[in-house]
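User: quick one, fold this
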Amino acid sequence: MKTLFSLLLLCLVGATAPALAKTPGEVEVGGTLREATMQGLSGPSRKLSEFRGKPLVINVWASWCGPCRAEMGSLERLARRGGKKFAVIGISTDDYPEAARAFLHQYRTSFSHFIDSRLFLENMLGADRLPLTLLIDAQGRVLGKYYGAKDWDSPEALEVIGKNFRIKL
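Assistant:
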């Protein structure tokens, strides 16, 4: 019986290893983001590479996340302030697009949002807790990762963003 259990366990581990191997690893600060197609929530689906050419702020959120709600207004103000200097996008980790769209309707953000129901981006970005905001340079390199709600249009945050993106805000 013990041998049978061991054999079954070995088969289970062997069967799941290929699936686990396909799970993308987290891109650390200093690394370059891999290509990904993002399913649109507030517009069309887009490739991550379409945002290359200027700096990018990526915010990873969920509709059930209280701190995500708390910072969404400051992200909207940051997006407006960034104008043509940098882009801001949001990525929802919600399982259901309807919940994410209801959240967006409530907060009326003008920047593009996408949903990551397959967890590819969540894994690649390292979103093991929310919210997560990343600063990405024009070539797709991760400059910084910030966990937890922040006031993204505060003087302190604008200074961090300006230094990372080498722009004046």
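User: anything notable?
Assistant: The chain has one domain: 2-165.
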